[in-house]
Amino acid sequence: MISGKWIGDIPKYYQKEGWKLKIVQNKHENIQIIKKTSIDKIKIMENENGVQRYMNLKHGISTPFFLLYYHYGEGGFFMKKKMAMLCAAVIGVSAVFGTTGCGNNGNEELVSSAEDSSAQDTDGKVTKLVFLRAGTEKAKKNYWQEMIEGFEAENPDIDIEYQECPYGDDFETKLNTGFASSTAPDIINFTMASMGTRVPLGQYESLDKYVDVWEGKDDFMENALKLGTINDSLYGLPVFADPRVLIYNKEMFEEAGLNSENPPSNWDELLAAHEKLVKKDGDSVVQTGMGIPTSGSNMHQWFSIFAEENGVKNLVDEDDNSILINTPEAVEAAEYMLKLKELGVVQWDSTNSDQNPFSTGLAAMTFGSDQDFQTWNSGALKDKIAMASPLKNKKQATFCGMSFLFMSGETEHKEEVWRFMEYISSPENMWKRYEELGSAPLRESLKDKFIAENPEINQVIYESISCGNGSPKVPYANSVYNIVNESMEKIMYGVDEPGKSMNDGAKKIQKEVDNL
User: Fold this and answer.
1) Largest alpha-carbon pair distance within the chain?
2) CB 244, CB 305: distance < 8 Å
């Protein structure tokens, strides 16, 4: 039997449900093997040296690390279905990841920082905040550190500790650790995808009370703010937009007798250009028009672009959990993608963008990010490629990811956190973000200045952000992605007809919804 000393309290967002969460500390030698169990039987522990880790219960193996343990009542080891789904979505069914890749000291950073975050100097005037961002790119690190230094200079009563962690399991684990042990960072720079799981858990604070009286609200791009909203409440303040744009090869257009100054603007024009650009050697496609993938982990993004251009709201409706991938308009989008494939494509896996045939001159068109464009335009394709405005069938649309600033739902320093968020979102610092990182400014007052810097490119980027939509912000989003990826692969490889494949996928998603 495992026993230990209770060293932590339940986060406030579980108190509302009557749950008990404790943290136990055990001696290394006392940790024993536990029989196979489920995600709702998880504990948080730390070893005798204070090193914190997750443990994988999926295969029933325990190691001397800490785990989450939700104890309902005095004797029951079970969870309500809805809470179990949300916790599983945040922690992950495999639930055990080390955090050695985060910051300097993994989760220990958050623990030590949280102990100091409410402390003040001897005069009682300095508040310490912890800022955690996803990603380790050097250029962005330099930018954030510059912003923090500038903010601290203007706000000597606030001190901000910078931390970073790679995207993926390491970052999720670090956040899970912080929230579970009440040592979460005060400010979080993370993705839209995180909102579907973390907002319902109370881990992100609503910004309405601050934004509603903020002069910057009316100057912000409306769609950018919309992407940070759930149930009409704003949780994320947009920072870095990541739209998908139509990119085409002007040289290949001219060789095919197409007007390189007049790229496709709708489905009919895209299909006609695609067909004219396809080249075959016997049955083998040696050049394609539209470089769409036929498999991979990002098929849901490609499908969502065409589906939303055809009038579909999203893969699912965030407001009522209605499944939309098998609506007539969505099926028509899948049929359109299949038609492009049947006319001739160079097959590639969307998991690896380096496989995109556009990058090697084997495709004349594709969807890519503005970073993709910069990369391709600096190599063999330099000065041969251009951007085109988002396509339209029933409406103009594209996919647009977004990185946000989030206020921790547990921070004791909300006013100070908002001051930092407001500082980052000022016109001056937003423009500095563009100058240093190439990130599109998200204020309407900067639109004309931004477009004037590079009219052909920046006009398209602005349009794409204005009409772009991200993945649905729901707790079961990862399941939606996987199911749509599978459904699209079956369609592209002729395993199932589009209608059947999307109906089957919708049934699988419905099971996820029913488990909420």
Assistant:
1) 81
2) yes
The span from the CA of 89 to the CA of 416, in Å, is 30
Evaluate whether 113 touches 187 at the Cβ level (below 8 Å): no
Measured between alpha carbons, how far is 488 from 433 in angstroms, rounded to an integer? Answer: 37
User: Given this model, what pLDDT does residue 196 score?
Assistant: 95
Question: What's this model's pTM, rounded to 2 decimal places?
Answer: 0.80
> How far apart (Å, rounded) are the C-alpha atoms in residues 233 and 211?
10
Nearest residue to 380 via CA among 362, 364, 361:
361
CA 445 to chain centre: 27
pLDDT of residue 417: 98
- Contacts by 229-234, CB closer than 8 A, 24 or more apart: 230/195, 230/196, 230/199, 230/318, 230/473, 231/319, 233/206, 233/208, 234/206, 234/207, 234/208
Angle of the 299-309 helix axis to the 328-343 helix axis, nearest 10:
120
With the C-alpha atoms ordered 89, 93, 95, 101, is the resulting torsion angle positive or negative?
negative
Task: Find tokens 């709201």 and name the residue.
Answer: 313
Which residues, 6+ apart, have CB-to-CB distance to 241 below 8 Å? Answer: 224, 400, 401, 402, 403, 439, 440, 442, 461, 465, 468
Residue 64 has pLDDT above 50, yes or no: no
Distance CA 435, CA 416 (A): 27
- 123 band by pLDDT with thresholds 50, 70 and 90: low
In 3D space, the residue among 258, 260, 298, 296 whose CA is nearest the CA of residue 277 turns out to be 258
Backbone angles phi, psi at 49, to 5 degrees: -90, 5
For 317, 328, 341, 500, the CA distances from 503, given in Å and listed in that order, are: 16, 11, 21, 5
Q: How far apart are CA 90 and CA 476, in angstroms?
A: 10
Tokens, residue 337: 């993608």
CB 473 within 8 A of CB 89: no
> Which two structure tokens, joined as six digits, stand for 362?
């084997």
For the segment 362-417, what is each residue's pLDDT rounded down to a tens digit? 999 999 999 999 999 998 999 999 999 999 999 999 999 999 999 999 999 999 99
User: Is the separation of the CB atoms in 415 and 207 below 8 Å?
Assistant: no
Residue among 337, 461, 442 nearest 389 (CA): 461
Helix/strand/coil for 409: coil
